[in-house]
Specification:
Layout (H helix, E strand, L loop, with lengths): L1 H21 L13 H15 L5 E5 H7 L4 H8 L9 E2 L5 H8 L9 H5 L1 H8 L2 E3 L7 E3 L12 H4 E3 L10 E2 L6 E2 L7 E4 L4 H19 L2 H30 L5
Antiparallel strand pairs: 1-2, 3-4, 5-8, 6-7
């Protein structure tokens, strides 16, 4: 009986403990899984910068190609490497034991990461790397302290010289018109190929893609939803008239 009570308490309060442990200042991002151009750029970024270490083993290339409006032959030629076929699951060749030795932990599968972490967390994390010589890879992250992952997008963003301002409240000085508390990196130890605005837009596309992959059926559900609601409205009219006819002689 005591074991059951303990289990019940853990189930009841675990989400609260998790939320407390994960609570951090985050930037917000607006995603739209119907934005096909954004999703196409997102899958390109994921394939070229993330998929060397992170799999998406619960998703298939063909499903993504079809949903994102990419012809299968174009997807195979540009976004599938090795001997994989368009109908294959999005696994990777890296061995889990080797990756744990190299990175200290096996890089997680990212199929459901957006549902686990949320879009704002991912967007902030991808923009939160900074220089830290005390870490094995020379970088740290303000959202995920002491992260074991190298900054694989450094050639695009560059590398912040100090912790970037993530979750900062942007304010405008009414006298000078200067923006204060702007989110992001102020000084760079290494320059990237993108401007801060371009990198933010690219990370929005990458996060948008990860949100889509976490629940790809939403595309179909959102397309069907207006028709379902219209059917229910019409059905309600007939149900109302039928009910009125049944009860017209009842006083």
């Amino acid at each position: 009986m005591k074991s059951l009570i303990k289990a019940f308490v853990l189930v009841l309060f675990a989400p609260l403990v998790w939320a407390s442990a994960e609570k951090a200042a985050l930037d917000t991002v607006s995603v739209d899984i119907r934005d096909q151009a954004s999703l196409q750029n997102g899958v390109k970024l994921f394939t070229n910068y993330c998929m060397g270490c992170h799999s998406m083993k619960y998703s298939r290339y063909e499903r993504i190609a079809n949903d994102l409006g990419i012809p299968n032959d174009v997807y195979e030629e540009n976004l599938i490497f090795g001997d994989e076929k368009i109908g294959s699951l999005m696994t990777i060749a890296m061995d889990a034991k080797d990756s744990k030795t190299w990175f200290g932990a096996t890089p997680p599968d990212l199929t459901l990461v957006a549902r686990l972490r949320g879009a704002d967390w991912l967007y902030s994390y991808l923009r939160g790397f900074y220089k830290d010589e005390s870490r094995p890879w020379g970088v740290n992250n303000v959202v995920f302290k002491d992260v074991g992952m190298p900054h694989v997008l450094m050639e695009l963003q560059g590398l912040c010289a100090e912790p970037p301002h993530i979750g900062a409240k942007t304010e405008v000085d009414p006298l000078s018109g200067q923006v204060k508390g702007k989110s992001g990196c102020e000084n760079f130890a290494i320059k990237g190929s993108m401007s801060p605005e371009e990198y933010d837009a690219a990370m929005r596309d990458l996060v948008n893609f990860l949100v889509y992959v976490g629940e790809p059926s939403r595309l179909q559900a959102e397309a069907v939803a207006p028709w379902v609601l219209g059917f229910l409205v019409i059905l309600f009219i007939f149900a109302y008239l039928l009910n009125k006819e049944y009860w017209k002689d009842v006083h």
